[in-house]
TrEMBL record:
Pfam families referenced in this protein's UniProt entry, alphabetically: Isochorismatase (PF00857)
Keyword Signal in record: yes
Domain Isochorismatase-like: 67-259
InterPro entries: Isochorismatase-like_dom (IPR000868), Isochorismatase-like_hydrls (IPR050272), Isochorismatase-like_sf (IPR036380)
Domain of life: Eukaryota
UniProt keyword annotations, A-Z: Hydrolase, Signal
Protein name: Isochorismatase hydrolase
Membership in a protein family: Belongs to the isochorismatase family.
Organism classification: Eukaryota, Fungi, Dikarya, Basidiomycota, Agaricomycotina
The keyword Transmembrane helix belongs to this UniProt entry's keyword annotation: no
MF annotations from Gene Ontology: hydrolase activity
Segment forming the signal sequence: 1-18
Organism: Calocera cornea HHB12733
Length: 284
């Protein structure tokens, strides 16, 4: 009887110091004494506590059954040395990305690959002049999306149409593609095309439909470019009420350093930032 009363008292104390931010369906519980954010909402059968670099180095408690790793645009077009020689930071992010993929799979958490994948309807109905110009040579409209890129690697690979669905340049880069294929066989990995910077822009994109169907609410992000498509998807995730965690060392960009500083600053305020050296031990 004494043990039961002690347990009830401890539970009451924990609840009392946890402040609820949100509504009936979507909320965080914040224990300011311990500086821990509970993101599990309805609880979890196997919660995991992870350290972060945000909100005074707070920790977060996640529900693995409602968490996913989102990898944005780590495609040949952006990372292959011949197509993007300046993408050194993005290529450096490949190894820690692979480590985190394995750790998430081991905990039963899915991997969502969110990537450029243009089709004919996008070209004729949806793409803005800004994007069409930005992905062209700056002079000719026929050099933009889905234009033929020719061969690379001494003529051994047909790069295909620029970021068009099914093209080699649009598939995951190097060992990431191998990992993706393994994930498909395992049933842990899922692929979603996008036709703008953000994989969540618009009304129920394929990626958001999957999040809705699976009940995933906590998203860990990596990919390229940090300040463009990764940030675009992260900030839309914030706007739509998802827990947003940027894993800094699995992100990369060709932009100046201050572009990444802006992203870290904003996501650190709207969500959390962390890195693989902090969270991999907790997932082991």
């Amino acid at each position: 009887m004494f043990k039961l009363l002690t347990s009830v008292l401890a539970l009451t104390t924990t609840v009392a110091v946890a402040e609820k931010f949100g509504n009936f369906y979507n909320y965080w519980l914040y224990n300011s004494t311990a500086n821990i954010f509970d993101l599990t909402r309805y609880g979890s059968s196997n919660p995991i506590t992870l350290p972060t670099l945000s909100n005074r180095n707070s920790s977060i408690i996640i529900a693995p059954e409602r968490s996913a790793l989102v990898i944005v645009d780590m495609q040949n077009y952006f990372l292959d040395p011949e197509l993007s020689p300046g993408a050194k930071a993005g290529r450096a992010a490949v190894a820690p990305t692979l480590q985190l993929i394995d750790a998430f799979r081991a905990k039963g958490m899915p991997i969502a690959w969110v990537q450029w994948g243009i089709d004919e309807y996008d070209l004729t109905h949806l793409l803005s002049p800004s994007f069409l110009y930005g992905f062209s040579d700056g002079k000719h409209a026929n050099t933009s999306f889905c234009s033929e890129m020719g061969t690379v690697h001494n003529g051994t690979i047909d790069a295909g149409k620029l970021l068009c669905r099914g093209a080699w340049n649009a598939q995951q880069y190097g060992p990431l593609y191998t990992s993706y294929l393994q994930g498909l066989e395992m049933g842990t990995d899922f692929y979603f095309n996008k036709n703008t910077l953000s994989g969540l822009w618009g009304v129920f994109t394929p990626f958001e439909q999957w999040l809705h169907d699976t009940g995933v609410t906590t998203l860990f992000f990596g990919g390229v470019n940090t300040d463009q498509c990764v940030f675009g998807t992260m900030i839309d995730a914030v706007y739509k009420g998802y827990d947003t965690i940027m894993v800094e060392d699995i992100c990369g960009t060709t932009s100046p350093y201050y572009a990444t500083q802006m992203v870290v600053y904003n996501i650190g305020g709207d969500g959390w930032t962390t890195n693989t050296s902090m969270i991999l031990p907790a997932l082991a």
